[in-house]
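Let us practice reading a record.
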Amino acid sequence: MVAGGKPALARALSRIEADRFGDLTIDLLDDAFAAPKAGVLGLTGPPGVGKSTLTRALIGALRARGETVGVIAVDPSSQVTGGSLLGDRTRLKTDPQDTGVYVRSMAAGDRLGGLSDATIAATVLMRAVFDRVIVESVGVGQSEGDIGLVSDATLLCIQPGSGDSLQFMKAGIMELPDIIAVTKADAGAAARRAVADVEGALSLSGRTVPVLAVSAVTGEGVDALLEKAANLAAPGDWQARPPRWLAHSVRATFGAAGLAALAKSRPEADPRRPFATERTILDRFAARWNIAES
């Protein structure tokens, strides 16, 4: 797939979205799981905070260092029609001729503010291909914790003057990030006040998390952010992730009853083949309840 470049990767990701439980897809994902290469940095935060703009700046800085970058940009799906605009790829404005960058937009599906199971699978594939993977989530309210399913380091973006730090304390979101970026640092005093507010909120929560003021416009703080992320977002030990992915998938497919059945049955799992294990368990549950999984 690496030899096939972007077209081969695009076909593989399309296969994941269209036929996630097909034999070829399962084999591809289990092979990718066994061959991690990239650290995964997850970006989250409320809409309009500047996640896509910051992602573009991070891509530029990483490419300047000679690192290859894969980006998964999760766009919200309509709760009425199920459709998704998939506009993040357009906003990132990467060079289509640059073989060292690949951006894939994916729909959140019914996971408002979170990650679909296809996004989890796509991240596993891309981390076997690139030097660094960035996952930009929808970031709506309290569902932001889903980013931890795939990230080795989670970056929470906050913008000056928004009052986000207080709201995030109420929602428990301050417990999630490994790094906090106050975007639009070129706002001057407002950005400095936001940094102080966030640091104050963190002190109340008892957590020590780096808080950086960054500006995608001027480049301020971008290199410092990458240095912090590099220490955290190395290819982590993902052996503990598959049970969480399985629970996520069972909940999405069968709801609370499925989670209860999963906890009760404690099925055997092959740690080397987490996606084959997932398919087996979903098939078993579907047969038990006489329903077809999507």
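A brief commentary: The radius of gyration is 19 Å.
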